[in-house]
Here is the input.
Amino acid sequence: MSELSTFFALYPVLWVTIATLFGLLVGSFLNVVINRLPVMMERAWKRECRALLAAEGTAAETGKEEPFDLVHPRSHCPACGAPVRAWQNIPVISWLWLRGRCAACGSPISWQYPAVELVAGLLAGLAAWQFGPTLWGLAVIVFSWMLLAAAVIDLKTQLLPDVFTLPLLWLGLLLPIFLPDHHVSLQDAVLGATFGYLALWSVYWLFRLLTGKEGMGFGDFKLLAALGAWLGWQMLPLVILLSALAGSVIGIAMILALRHDRRVPIPFGPYLAIAGLIALYLGELIMTAYLGGMP
Here is the structure.
């Protein structure tokens, strides 16, 4: 790793370019995860329910299901079932070349595909440019990709899968141990994870006691705990403030521009992800500017 780091340090433009291109490819895979993971989770829940009912003798288990995972079945058009060929799966370029439509039947292809690919590439390029060819830079790239996938899934399904939040949490706690020059100490990471979880957990129960309703899901607690582990407890007030601000601005825009029904809940995970990335790159600058402006 040291030799590669030295080489890419001499050619930073090459490092940023490679990271961005690889991010585009990973974005294509993230689209698969975003579309299939919720279905896989739902099928797993149904299997568990059927097995429980069968064990109690109240229902019989059904036959085997067709394989459905991140590999099977092969990517295909949901409208006509035509398989997606290799040249039709080039990140962003294929979508533009096909003008956002299936090559076989002409059905529209969701904007999600090029958007996720492009954002994944830009996030990787930004981390490569900001932190250089370092282990911390690689960790930030992975952090950004996982936040992106979790945020889009939450936006589409109002689910924040543990497969993203828990690994992010553990990685945030382990980084201070394996990266001696990490800017967050182990103590700050542990406190960040603890206070992050308790902050939204407390809001959840207070809101439930006052209204009898659930204001957010447990996935939000875990995600803020993960952000606290990565950024340290000192950044938690900023993350909460930025997420609330992003939620207010985007929520009002959705109601006014897209006529989003106010009674339909808007997931909080994407706003936490946005706030976490802003705090990662600009948190110290914002905090310094704020504290410096205090009398």
Summary: The chain has two domains: 1-133, 160-295. DSSP finds ten helices and no strands in the chain.
